[in-house]
Write a structure and sequence with these properties.
- This protein has helices spanning about 1-30, 230-240, and strands spanning about 40-45, 50-55, 65-70, 75-90, 100-105, 110-115, 120-140, 150-160, 205-215, 220-225, 245-250, 265, 270-280.
- With about 280 residues, it is mostly beta strands.
- The relative contact order is 0.13.
- The chain has two helices and 13 strands.
- Strands 1, 2, 3, 4, 5, 6, 7 and 8 form an eight-stranded antiparallel β-sheet that branches. The chain has a three-stranded antiparallel β-sheet with strand order 10-9-13.
- Among the domains are: about 40-160, Galactose-binding domain-like (Jelly Rolls, Sandwich); about 205-280, no CATH class.
- Keywords: Signal.
């Protein structure tokens, strides 16, 4: 009788263990079958800058998470080919109404957005968005007390956007078989015009330049194509400055936007390391 009771208790304990494991697995596994499964995201201050890489939002486990705050307001992923999206699933540690989902085209132009996205791990249907090359989570909070959002899991559903099929070229109509008309060739009697002597264009002088690559303490890399005089000015400033001193660097051809000039400022105590790679431009 004692052995029989011991066997029953062992079976009950095994069933409780199996149900606990099953409940834990269901509580930590997100919905499969999405377009972001196991894909990397970048947390950054904008969608045009490289940031901190993370897989916490797409690993299928709501127990792992990363944050979006006042410094890293965007978390984005860029697809290798355009996709069509019709629904999403999003989970955060705490409730929030300050998280938007944004959809961008190949030129990083905003196509559509979901404002105040649902963050309760429910699958939400949205109007179909086509031609999406980049998808981003955007922390739009302006309050210092609520600007930190901890994201556990994010997934979108849809399909690859099909490429348009090329239109078939019309077949040429057959021409009637007839004898070709022979046109006599008249040889001109004018004197040939002498070929002009080509003028030699002097070569542009060579210029010493360098790529200045700056790594900030946040892990962000900044690269500038500068003349050696500009690089030397930076080196002189770095050797003499300290603390929160700043230095302006002309972005030249890296300037994006309708601006006649764009200068980026770096802070001395935010620089982790930098590299100067010299070359000669023709």
């Amino acid at each position: 009788m004692f052995r029989k009771n011991k066997l029953i208790l062992s079976l009950v304990g095994l069933l409780l263990l199996i149900s606990t494991i099953a409940a834990f697995s269901q509580s930590t596994y997100a919905y499969p079958g999405g377009l972001l499964d196991k894909k990397e995201f970048y947390a950054s201050s904008s969608i045009n800058e490289a940031g901190l890489q993370t897989w916490d939002w797409t690993d299928g486990d709501i127990g792992t998470h990363s944050i979006l705050n006042s410094m890293y307001r965007y978390g984005y992923h860029k697809f290798k080919a355009p996709v069509t999206i019709n629904s999403y699933q999003l989970k955060t540690v705490s409730p929030t109404t300050s998280l938007n989902i944004e959809f961008y085209d190949a030129n990083n132009n905003l196509i559509s957005s979901v404002n105040s996205a649902v963050v309760s791990n429910e699958r939400v249907t949205i109007p179909v968005v086509e031609g999406v090359y980049l998808i981003a989570l955007h922390n739009v909070s302006s309050s210092s007390s609520t600007n930190l959002i901890t994201v556990s899991e994010f997934e979108v559903y849809g399909s690859l956007t099909p490429s348009p099929s090329p239109s078939p070229s019309p077949s040429p109509s057959p021409s009637p078989t007839s004898e070709p008309t022979v046109v006599p060739t008249i040889i001109p009697t004018t004197e040939p015009t002498p070929e002009p002597t080509p003028t030699t264009t002097p070569e542009a002088p060579c210029e010493d330049r360098a790529l200045l690559n700056i790594t900030l303490i946040t892990g962000t890399d900044k690269e500038f194509d500068l003349s050696m005089s500009e690089v030397n000015a930076f080196l002189n400033w770095y050797d003499s400055a300290s603390g929160s001193s700043s230095f302006g660097i002309n972005k030249h051809n890296n300037n994006k936007g309708p601006f006649s000039n764009c200068t980026e400022y770096v802070i001395h105590d935010k620089i982790l390391t930098f590299e100067v790679s010299e070359y000669t431009a023709q």
